[in-house]
Design goal:
Alpha-Beta Plaits; about 20% helix; two-stranded antiparallel sheet; alpha+beta; single chain; 5 helices
Length: about 160
Amino acid sequence: MKRVLVREELCIGCGLCRVYCEAHHAGNDDPLKALKKRVAPPAGGIRVEQNGIRCLSIRCRHCAHAACIDACLTGAMYRDEDSGLVLVDSEKCIGCGTCMLVCPFGAIRKDEATTKVVKCEGCLDVDVPRCVSACPNGALVAVDETRVPAGSGAR
């Protein structure tokens, strides 16, 4: 499984990871084209938190025991067997938000335009997740989970 590690000491809080993720979830990988016709703020699978000079890109951690899957009323949240990632079936999602309530990391958001939930889904369609390729400071790194060193702070 691909996993994105956050190197907190390198995050400058620019939010490009969030912008490119939101553009992808809005339906176009070009942020200008994706966001041009939206009437509601776009939602993506990333949130950037800042406290003074400390910044952190927050995303789904695809938990081994994902509370969001257990809490989902319709079965829209599920674990993909091939990738091991926790994904959302937008056709089944009714936007109730129970998954948002139980996520210990606050990594699930609601898209106001669609009323469905969105979260990091690992960019399975590309080799390098969009947030990683957009990060100008190298704060986000994509690694194969089998190569994640113990104690690395994988986020």
